[in-house]
# Entry
Amino acid sequence: MWVVTPLAFVFVLFGISVVAGALGSLLGLGGGIIVVPALTLLFHVDIRLAIGASIVSVIATSSGAAAAYVRDHMTNLRVGMFLELGTTTGAITGAYLAGVVDPRVLYVVFGVALAYSAVAMFQRRHAEGAAGPPDRLADRLRLHDSYQDEATGVLVRYRVARVKLGLVLMYVAGMVSALLGIGSGALKVPAMDLAMGLPMKVSTATSNFMIGVTAAASAGVYFVRGDINPFIAAPVAAGVLLGATAGSRILPRAQSGAIRWLFVAVLVFIAIEMLARGIR
Amino acid sequence: MSDAGAPGLAPASAASGPEANAERVRRMELVISYLLRIGVVVSLVVVVGGLVLSFVHHPVYVSSRPELHRLTSRDTPFPHTLSGLVGGLRGLDGRAITALGLLLLIATPVLRVAVSIPLFVYQRDRTFAIVTAVVLTVLICSFVLGRAGG
# Structure
């Protein structure tokens, strides 16, 4: 355990959170994969307080980055808002299933699912932009859109596929997030990339937009329960907001392929971590 | 269409067709972006202000190492109820101010969902106004149910 003064704690945690916010905003993740181990391993903070801080990190990443992504038209607002139907109802279901389902089984199941997603997303690296099957629901909801790719200078038009499957996957993602307290974006980005055929950068930007809402639903409960310690959550919130703002300037100019590589690498890491927790 | 006269100048209420619609969608994006930005900036200022105040009130935080354990341990009391928060704010307690800033941060995405409902109504998009209203209802339910379930 690292014993430092509260002042040093604030600055170190702030620095770590800047990195978490930047990575999270680029990949559509909440940053919990960095914040939780940093707090528990480095400072021996109680796991519940660490998870409380990571919920704050998710919301800070989401709002900090989405402010830019929505303005820059990287986020597909309609896809995000429609899929929130799935994530929010899934989160309620998950809250009720807590205690009924063995978390170890879930860790194994979703470790495998994420490992499979990582492989499939890697294989899709040359197929990005290939149109999925026509989807009447996507037509009716007017989900098809375009975004300006600053890396290539091209206006990328894309069509959205398999909306119903996407909604089901979001329901599962919301449920798992509520049950395990992790994986908010790790499940959403593959669902949008693999099932719905969104471009990689639109998937991460739209995931970013959505994760804040799911996290806010549980954050209120965590707050009342006393899991959000202001002294721990404050440096996290400030650092993540700054990091996410910086990351949101990088994403429009980043190569889609580079974002995909980075995401697959992080996904492999999360999958291994989940499997280890389930098997142990 | 290249032959549209004075694009963007027509009032939204009088215009229709794809261009006016794109204009309304654009406005919605800007409103949501501003809302998120204001929520982020305000909560950041309050959170950091509260943190700074904590250090001003407790200079020992700068030098004492055992203080950290006390501050971050599970048993340390801190304001997390409404009455505790109000009391702390009255006494200008740094941690209560920080907690208020965190609550503002948490409220921002919920507010974003709420504001989207009238924005979709303004776009005459009934389907999405309903979708968003359902999302808001589910959000409120999950908070109420979560509180009840503890």
The mean pLDDT of chain B is 83. Chain B has six helices and no strands. Helices of chain B lie at 18-57, 60-63, 66-72, 82-90, 94-122, 126-149. Chain B touches chain A through 67 residues (CB under 8 Å).
